[in-house]
Write a structure and sequence with these properties.
It is a single chain. This protein is of the alpha+beta class. The protein has five helices and five strands; from the N terminus they run E-E-H-E-E-E-H-H-H-H. It has a five-stranded mixed sheet with strand order 2-1-5-3-4, with helices on both faces. The chain starts with a strand and ends in a 6-residue tail after the last helix. The relative contact order is 0.15. The chain binds FE2/S2 (inorganic) cluster (2 copies). One FE2/S2 (inorganic) cluster binds next to loops.
Length: 161
């Protein structure tokens, strides 16, 4: 099997990388592009630790080949930072509520919750809980995480306001 060239658009920057057709997006982002905020958890689509946004929707990077995502926009949690590396408001909420405990699951949690907030108008706590069902926290502080996301979605202007 020989490598092929793919162009990946990650956090607004273009990257040409040479990959094997069966190289996982997770491995290419983490190992080739050095994005430590994309993390290996289970490797089989169960834990949500490797979550990135693909055209704004959360996906498990361990379930995609890098060659499948050419021409799509990939966002990792560092893509939410401001131009001066300031924290995104949802990250501030996680800090305030202690939602990032050991921090291992936090990028995936934030990207999943951020995507929901972009898509839904003021989701309820039950809807937030449902959306995050595929993101596991080994520290198990789910209440703090839900509190953080709830504060963030409630702080956003409601649709039509
Ligand atoms: S590492 Fe991808 S879902 Fe667990
Ligand atoms: S904060 Fe430690 S795994 Fe979730």
């Amino acid at each position: 099997m020989s490598k092929v060239s793919v162009n990946l658009s990650v956090n607004g920057s273009q990257h040409e990388v040479w990959v094997f057709p069966n190289d996982l997006l997770l491995d290419v982002l983490h190992d080739e592009l050095g994005l430590a905020d994309v993390r290996y958890g289970c490797g089989e689509g169960v834990c949500g630790t490797c979550t990135v946004q693909l055209d704004g929707e959360p996906v498990s990077a361990c379930l995609l080949f890098a060659v499948q995502v050419t021409g799509r926009e990939i966002t990792t949690v560092r893509g939410l930072l401001g131009e001066d590396d300031s924290l995104h408001p949802i990250q501030e909420c996680f800090l305030r509520h202690g939602g990032a405990q050991c921090g291992f699951c936090t990028p995936g949690m934030i990207l999943t919750a951020h995507s929901l907030a972009e898509r839904a108008n003021r989701p309820s706590r039950a809807e937030i809980r449902y959306e995050l069902v595929g993101n596991l926290c080994r520290c198990t502080g789910y209440t703090k995480i839900l509190d953080a996301v709830e504060e963030y979605v409630d702080s956003r202007p409601s649709e039509g306001a």
